[in-house]
Design goal:
Blueprint: H1 4-10, H2 15-26, E1 29-30, H3 42-53, H4 66-80, H5 86-89, E2 90-93, H6 95-107, E3 113-118, H7 124-130, E4 134-139, H8 149-155, E5 160-166, H9 178-191, E6 194-198, E7 224-229, H10 230-233, E8 242-246, H11 248-261, H12 267-276, H13 281-305, E9 308-310, E10 317-321, H14 330-341, E11 343-344, E12 346-347, E13 361-365, H15 370-380
Parallel strand pairs: 1-11, 3-4, 3-5, 5-6, 6-7
Antiparallel strand pairs: 2-8, 7-8, 9-10, 10-13, 12-13
Helix pairs in contact: 3-12, 4-12, 6-7, 6-11, 13-15
Length: 383
């Protein structure tokens, strides 16, 4: 088991964060971070300001405001047909990140293994280590989004406590099908494993695909924790309001951890989020159409610049291959793009546990406005 000093040495500053800092310093177009330019809907900003002016500025119920928990339950019934009891099954967290950490601390004992699909969101590994767990990686094919069921089955053992399913996935943009989730569910039942679903990008699925919520799979009902957030869906990455949905037994453990990690999420933003989760369905449809259009715009720009691209099934990222350029690897190429071209992106090595993985692949985010993406396109002509 790692000591604190070993964990401190094992954690490095996020490469995405480093690139973002350098992008600001160099005035480069930041397509490295998933930061939206779109404004928070005016009605939600007004709701947050009203809460502040009404002195709703103190911490509230550790579980989250009742109005927000009820709104989350409403949204999941409207979108997924799930009837969720807000009193005992929904916890409001300080963003999805805190919800994920609280989930891991709730279900992972020292030495337990946690399965992660790779490439993976860089936060997962440090959070598993903070829970004194051991990450076990299962590869996903970047081109097809497929994983090998036998490799996944072999990753399960008597030491497995949890599996993290990012759906749609960051960075690859894979959208898990119902059949794939049912396969995972059967393995979780067989090995008595909890599934943690990071579903922060659930409304960003493209080409007529449908997002399948982990909680809608029968075998996951009592052994899943579904994490969602206001950050992506409502363009509010700075609000730090998320939600965790799970059974009463898991809720009790998760809430104990949540209380001592961050406590209640910011009260005024919870007030606004209560309105956000009750948005009309037309809002989500318009959001999907906007991001599908931006996906196409960035893909065309990257193709014209000499990259070959993999269109994502969901989320906010395009995987591009830089093999046609005369650079030894993606990391060196990203440094060149940042300093000499003025565009920031992330080499795929940031999303793998081992060195030397995907040396020619780069992640670009199309979360920015069309104007900013077009600016990046003009700069990329320097290539």
């Amino acid at each position: 088991m790692p000591r604190v000093s070993e964990i401190s040495n094992d954690f490095s500053e996020s490469l995405v964060h480093k690139i973002a800092v350098q992008a600001r310093e160099l005035e480069a177009v930041n397509l490295a971070q998933p930061l939206p330019d779109a404004e928070v809907p005016a009605a939600l900003k007004k709701r947050a300001v009203s809460a502040i002016n009404s002195n709703r500025n103190q911490i509230d119920d550790i579980r989250g405001l009742a109005a927000l928990r009820e709104a989350v339950a409403y949204r999941y019934e409207q979108t997924h047909g799930l009837r969720i009891e807000s009193e005992d099954h929904i916890t409001i967290t300080s963003g999805a990140t805190e919800g994920l950490l609280a989930s891991l601390l709730a279900v992972v004992d020292p030495g337990d293994e946690v399965i992660v699909f790779e490439p993976s969101f860089p936060n997962y590994r440090p959070q598993i280590l903070m829970a004194r767990g051991v990450p076990v990686y299962v590869p996903i094919d970047l081109e097809t989004g497929a994983f090998d069921p036998k490799t996944l089955a072999n990753a399960f053992s008597e030491k497995t406590a949890a599996i993290i399913i990012c759906n749609p996935s960051n960075p690859g943009g894979k959208v898990f099908s119902r059949a794939e989730l049912e396969t995972i569910a059967q393995l979780c039942v067989r090995h008595d494993v909890v599934a943690i679903g990071d579903e922060s990008y659930e409304y960003f699925v493209y080409d007529e695909r449908k997002h399948v919520c982990l909680g809608s799979i029968d075998d996951f009902r009592d052994r899943s924790i579904v994490i969602t957030s206001c950050s992506k869906t409502y363009m509010a990455t700075g609000w730090r309001v998320g939600a965790a949905l799970c059974s009463m037994q898991l809720s009790k453990a998760l809430r104990r951890c949540h209380e001592f990690i961050a406590g209640p999420a910011p009260t005024p933003f919870q007030e606004a989020a209560a309105a956000a989760f009750r948005a009309d369905d037309s809002y989500y449809q318009a959001l999907r159409e906007l991001f599908e259009r931006k996906r196409g715009l960035l893909a065309d720009i990257l193709s014209d610049a000499g990259f070959s691209c993999i269109l994502p099934q969901g989320a906010w990222f395009i995987t591009a291959d830089m093999s046609s350029f005369d650079f030894k690897d993606a990391a060196a190429f990203c440094v060149y793009m940042l300093k000499d071209v003025g565009v920031a992106a992330v080499p795929y090595g940031a999303f793998y546990s081992g060195s030397g993985q995907r040396q020619t692949k780069i992640r670009f985010s199309f979360s920015r406005s069309e104007r900013v993406i077009e600016d990046a396109g003009r700069r990329l002509k320097r290539l």
